[in-house]
Amino acid sequence: MLLRIIAVLACLLSLVLCAEDFYKLLGIKKDASEREIKKAYRTLSKKFHPDKNPGDQSAHDKFVLVAEAYDCLIDVEQRRIYDQYGHEGLEQHKRGGGRPQHHDPFDLFSRFFGGSGHFGHSGGERRGPNMEVRVAVPLRDFYNGRQTEFTVEKQAICSACEGTGSEDGQVDTCDVCGGRGMRITRQQLAPGLFQQVQSMCDACHGKGKKIQHPCPVCGGSRVVREPETHELNVEKGMPRGVRITYENEADESPDWVAGDLIVHLVEADPQLGTEEHEKTDGTFFRRRGKDLFWREVLSLREAWMGDWTRNITHLDGHIVQLSRKRGEVVQPNTVEIVQGEGMPLWHQELPEGVDEAFGVLHIEYVVILPDEMEKAMEKEFWSVWEKWRKKKGVNLLQDSGRPTPHDEL
Ligand SMILES: [Zn+2]
Ligand SMILES: [Zn+2]
To answer: What is the set of domains in the chain, with CATH numbers?
Structure first.
């Protein structure tokens, strides 16, 4: 009795699961392109793969369903029927002798990621090499955070022949070497003395297989080179040189499970953008860890007499105002620390219980003296200097206590 209830429940459950909308399941829109469907499959099949969720039946079911949804939506005719008549229409179509396109979910997985459909952490599955790329983004993106994308060219399993290398899917075992890829021949060294020599089978070039009609897309090599675009989430405050791993997105081959694609996120050289919001002073800030650095130029008058204001546009366009009142002197090379105007701290580096924190902005003041003056101006300044110098001037040469040239004699 109990068993029967369980059986009924399981049946109901599978009905509920089966009835889940394919588009919703893959997280795509009704008008999703072939590329978007493939992308969704890549992401979800890795997420729900049983090797990654050992013992989790619901993940396993999802993995199967994702493959089913992919199989349906990638086929133009099945997709049309599904769009019009839903799950039931699709079932009828399959029963009515429509082209069956049921793939084993693991087989489908292996057509995307190579190997035999498993991740290769167990069971001695071969794993392809990891791939490393550098992606440069401007400092602005490290400050504001940004959802962007990048494209890499990689080796992918040929989708025209599904990685078989054969146009009609027919792959035969080489009859010369019997599939071993090697041939053993006997060479006579001297009368009655033979040596066995092992050499590569030249009928199949060591592959052990023969294809009558090579795939026209990959020429029988089973793989093609193609660009692939990945999403890149630059998080606020991410450190320069951070490594982001895209699991199983390196070069693919039917002979192995694809390795990981590893992105090194580096900072691009500063460059004023073309859009208004990109034209900020902040573009030229220098970053060290969570702190930012900026050099501000003051004239002699400003440094000495005060009464000036500067508006620095930060990386997100907000303004940091610097100013001195009349009479406030700034010595050359002074460094002013502006709290809270450095980089945002990356969420992984925030102290516990803190939602947001910033480093500081270092402002180094550089004072520029005029090297040319109008004659009249020079005269006026000179006489002011003379007047006040005589009154209370300091003679640095005399008052320093250094020996005069006279003392040296
Ligand atoms: Zn052979
Ligand atoms: Zn091919």
So the answer is: 15-103 (1.10.287.110), 131-267 (2.10.230.10), 276-388 (2.60.260.20)
